[in-house]
Amino acid sequence: MDILCTNGVKSVMLELLPEFERARSTKIAVTWGSTNALLKDIKAGLGGDVAVLTAEAVDELIDQGKAVAGSRVDLARSRIGVAVRKGAKQPDIASPEALKRALIAASSVAHSKTGLSGLYFPTVLARLGIADAMQSKIVIPDPGTAVGEVVAKGDAEIGIQQISELLPVAGIEIVGPLPEPLQKITTFSGGVLRAAKEPSLAEALLKFVAAESPRLLKQKGLEAA
Description:
- The protein is of the alpha/beta class.
- The protein has two domains: 2-77 and 186-223, Periplasmic binding protein-like II (D-Maltodextrin-Binding Protein, domain 2), CATH 3.40.190; 80-182, D-Maltodextrin-Binding Protein, domain 2 (3-Layer(aba) Sandwich).
- Helices cover 39% and strands 23% of the residues.
- The chain is built from ten helices and eleven strands.
- The strands form two sheets. The protein has a six-stranded mixed beta sheet with strand order 2-1-3-10-4-11.
- Helix 1 (10-24) links the parallel strand 1 and strand 2.
- The longest helix is centred in the N-terminal third of the chain and has 15 residues, at 10-24.
- It is elongated, with a radius of gyration of 18 Å.
């Protein structure tokens, strides 16, 4: 079975997929990536059995006939967080104004290029009225490099990414989520692809993940969908 899965729920899937493999005596190959990159690849013809992306992306695939109608299963919700290097002073980010002061005071701020948080964060800067002032401070990691890794190495003072993607990175500390007025909550969902070679097994996998993931969500920085 082939799965195309967003990095946003990677930490959960890494634990659950081996359990499913053992239970069903099957092997699963996973292609990890950002939702937008995977969505583009699927539209271009990349095959697979299951796509785990944002709810909106799965709906888009269904509308385009790339995923099976009625197959969408909501799996988790995710918030965007703020991280600093381990041991560094943690800035106050409790309110939009506090976050604004923290960002202006920072020497550098990292966010992804194609990930959901990376695409959204520039709108946060615009809403805070500091988009132009922050341009020279923005650090975009190389493809395949997590925002947290850049912060851990000291190449950025502050990192902005999904909390679920920051948590597994060693050498950083999560300050907290973006303030509620600026927060963007993402729902991650799975869908069975039209190209699935084993659609019944794909459907069973999504049901399994939906049933088993709640025990893992909180520790992985996620919430129930």
